[in-house]
Design goal:
It is a single chain. This protein is mostly beta strands and 395 residues long. It has three helices and 24 strands. Strands 18-19-20-21-1-24-23-22 form an eight-stranded mixed β-sheet, with no helix packed on it. Strands 2-3-4-5 form a four-stranded antiparallel β-sheet, with no helix packed on it. The longest helix is centred in the C-terminal third of the chain and has 17 residues, at 273-289. The radius of gyration is 20 Å and the shape is globular.
């Protein structure tokens, strides 16, 4: 395998790889079955059903509802749904009920326009942050759509998987390749709090390891495919490692103080041979598609599913931890003291209206956004076309 230090930086453009979590295959072309091994004992005895109350997205028709390649979803402070469309280079804004309201930005290289946007989030002050390295870095927009300028220049190796926090802050993961006099290099990766500057003001997790051009697997699993995290509007940050060996969520104050640890017994669940093969094919193909022509790439999938696949937090100080050992969406919900409150699951493509909804129910491909404004999700690898799902907890 041949990979250079500069090529290592493009790994952080692969925001889609964060979807390779629960089975290692979300968005990787694997058609999941319906088996659910690796159940965690529910000490609360209370399971609440999630239901789908609306869908945004059509295959044909009104172009405002035809989604190209969804890169990120979020809510603004009014509860409107924001969808970053990579192919259209814009943010589409919909009402909480799914009605199209407006479009933020468009494809282009002029002021306020976007080229290959990689991530989006809404800060606590209401601004919409969109990182597009080819367009200068962190673009800020008002929720009504006005471009507010480049907040921070990031021309390469930008922060990824951004999560809006309090005020002007957001949390993100980033990678640095540090050359040494010997000709070798170290890789430093960290999850930090940014307040518009190029450097984080707080680092919640950091790891440094030798850059090995022959070990792409270690590079990915020590960086972008290593953790999931989220932040609330008070600046609290919750982080979980993507591993099959431990079920652990850590909570930090905005200043970096550790205040919470949530632990459960880890249950290791093996991936099928098909899962492993499809994951390796997907990752290698995606790296080549990102510009690694002529580079020999070899990626080795972990034989076990991760215990945790997502961490989210709602507006009632509840932490939603999605199990990675099962194929359907199952969340363990905890309070800020680490006490388990209940379990929530979406076992059927149901809705509270009684209407027939066409739903892509290969749930392993779904990526959720849960915050103070509600619950939304989308499939990273849809069977037919891209859709956004609006969900709610059953009464």
């Amino acid at each position: 395998m041949i990979i250079t230090q500069n090529q290592a930086e493009y790994v952080f453009r692969l925001s889609i790889l964060k979807k390779c979590d629960a089975s290692g295959l979300s968005g990787c072309g694997y058609e999941a079955g319906r088996s659910n091994p690796g159940e965690i004992a529910d000490s609360t005895g209370q399971t609440v059903e999630l239901s789908i109350k609306g869908i945004i997205g059509v295959e044909y028709g009104d172009s405002n509802y035809v989604l190209g390649a969804v890169q990120a979803i979020d809510h603004d402070l009014d509860g409107n749904i924001l969808v970053l469309d990579l192919s259209a280079c814009c943010v589409r804004v919909y009402s909480p009920q799914g009605e199209f309201l407006r479009q933020i930005s468009n494809h282009g290289s002029g002021p306020g326009e976007l080229l290959r946007p990689v991530t989006m989030t809404v800060a606590g002050d209401g601004r919409v942050f969109v990182i597009a390295p080819q367009g200068g870095g962190m673009n800020a927009f008002a929720s009504e759509g006005e471009w507010l300028g480049i907040v921070t220049p990031f021309y390469s190796n930008p922060p990824m998987n951004t999560s809006g926090a309090d005020g002007n802050a957001y949390v993100a993961i980033r990678l640095e390749v540090l050359p040494e006099e010997s000709g070798d290099a170290q890789v430093r990766t960290f999850i930090g709090r940014y307040e518009e500057g190029e450097e984080p003001v707080v680092k919640y997790w950091e790891y440094e390891f030798p850059f090995d051009p022959g070990n792409l697997t270690a590079l990915l699993k020590n960086t972008l495919m290593g953790h999931v995290f989220t932040a609330d509007r008070n600046g609290n940050v919750f982080i979980a490692e993507l591993t099959s060996e431990e079920y652990l969520v850590e909570g930090f104050r905005a200043d970096g103080e550790l205040f919470l640890e949530i632990r459960e017994d880890a249950v290791q669940v093996e991936k099928t041979l098909e899962e492993i093969s499809d994951e390796e094919i997907y990752v290698e193909a995606y790296l080549e598609a990102m510009g690694a022509e002529g580079v020999v790439i070899e990626y080795n999938a972990d034989p076990y599913r991760n215990t945790i696949s997502e961490v989210e937090v709602d507006g009632e100080d509840r932490i939603w931890v999605r199990r990675g050992t099962v194929l359907e969406p199952v969340f363990d919900i905890y309070d800020y003291n680490g006490e388990k409150l209940f379990t929530a699951s979406l076992s059927e493509a149901g809705n509270g209206t009684g209407d027939a909804l066409v739903v892509d129910d290969n749930f392993v491909f779904w990526d959720f956004n849960i915050d103070e404004q509600g619950i939304i999700a989308y499939s990273t690898n849809p069977e037919l076309y891209q859709q956004i799902y609006i969900l709610e907890l059953a009464e």
